[in-house]
Amino acid sequence: MARPVKKSTRPCDDPQLDYKDLETLAKYLTPQGQIHARRKTGYCAKCQRQLKQAIKRARHIGLLPFVG
Amino acid sequence: MNIYEGMFLLDNNVVREDWNNAKGVATGILEKHGANVATARRWAERSLAYTIKKRNRGTYLLVHFDADPNSISIVRRDLELNDTVMRYLILTIDEVPEGEQELHEAELSSDFSVPEPPEDHVVDDDSDEEEEGAPREGSSEGSSGEQPAGEEAKPADAEAPAAEEAKADEAEAPAAEEAKADEPEAPAAEEAKADEPEAPAAEEAKADEAEAPAAEEAKTDEAEAPAAEEAKTDEAEAPAAEEAKADEAEAPAAEATESTEEKPEANASEEG
User: What is the rounded distance in angstroms from the CA atom of residue A20 to the CA atom of residue A23?
Assistant: First the structure.
């Protein structure tokens, strides 16, 4: 029987994620540099897409690691 | 005309020579294709999260400009061909963020000076240590270089990585010293071994018979020869010495039971 996924109660509140705001983005990365899942970030689909986009932009320009 | 935000990663070697020249490379490409550059300022100088074009550090240039959407593809092509711009990111934005204009003008003022970019450790293909160290530096520095709030923050950004670089230098230096130290240590240890047995050698000489040393002289000479050459390879000598020990141990073992394995070796070496 699958364990029920506990949904986060944290609201998105339109986080306005920017690829230059590394302090914020780093909070949503695992130590290996992977992006946290929605069940962990608590973001809605729209905000999660913004997070993904911002992190990938930062990775492209060398601000965040792809791995490690 | 759309408003764009461009982030350019510039080569530190060009920045070190002249910041305005490096900035002009990026803005010149934009203006060449009809863009109207509103602001252009140094965002940060920081270590990269991963090695780009064998560089571990780079200077970021933040530009806001108006341009015809059709010209962006041509601008991108020119940026790809340019060696000074290592990476670029061009995004459409609604309006130039507040405060950017002031920061841009502050950089144009005469008292603005760009801190000297720290030395970059160019990554060699052979050395794995530097490549592994690069991402760690980038991740640890994440909090220091990311706040381009104002002019005051910029020197601080440059200083922090400088300190890290210094640490990196120190860490590398002992590594090199250790490598050098290993070579002299080996012969030193061998000399010590040779010296110790010398003293008891005189005492044991009485107990030794003529047969044992005679057969062993040739072998011990071989063992000493590489030692005199300061032993490029320790492994090659060690077995040689062991053979000598083993051979010597057989002969005196029957007669001189008190002697250890090392002592007969020394006897043979003195006599040889």
Answer: 9
Determine the residue among B62, B146, B147, B157 to mutate to test chain A binding: the one whose Cβ has the most chain A Cβ atoms within 10 Å. Answer: B146
ipTM of the complex: 0.86
pLDDT in tens, B155-192: 444 444 444 444 444 444 444 444 444 444 444 444 44
Q: Distance from CA of residue B131 to its chain's centroid?
A: 8
The single-letter DSSP state of residue A63 is S
Q: Which residues have CB under 8 Å from B6's CB, separation 6+?
A: B26, B30, B61, B62, B63, B64, B65, B88, B89, B90, B91
Q: How distant is the Cα of B33 from the closest Cα of chain A, in angstroms?
A: 23
- Structure tokens given for B113: 């000076």
Q: Are residues B14 and B138 in the same domain?
A: yes
Closest CB from B58, B136, B139 relative to A62: B58
Between helix B69-81 and helix B19-32 the angle, nearest 10°, is: 140
Residue B142 near chain A (CB below 8 Å): yes
- Give B232 to chain A, closest Cα distance, Å: 39
Our CA angle for B17, B19, B22, nearest 5°, is 90
**Which residues, 6 or more positions from A23, have their beta carbon under 8 angstroms from its beta carbon?**
B142, B143, B146, B147
What's the pLDDT score for residue B125?
A: 58
For residue B74, what are the domain limits?
2-151
Whether residue B130 is found in the same domain as residue B50: yes
pTM: predicted TM-score of the whole model, two decimal places: 0.55
With CA atoms as reference, the chain A residue closest to B93 would be A18
Residue A36 is assigned to a structural domain of this protein: yes
Looking up residue A53, the CATH number of its domain turns out to be 4.10.640.10
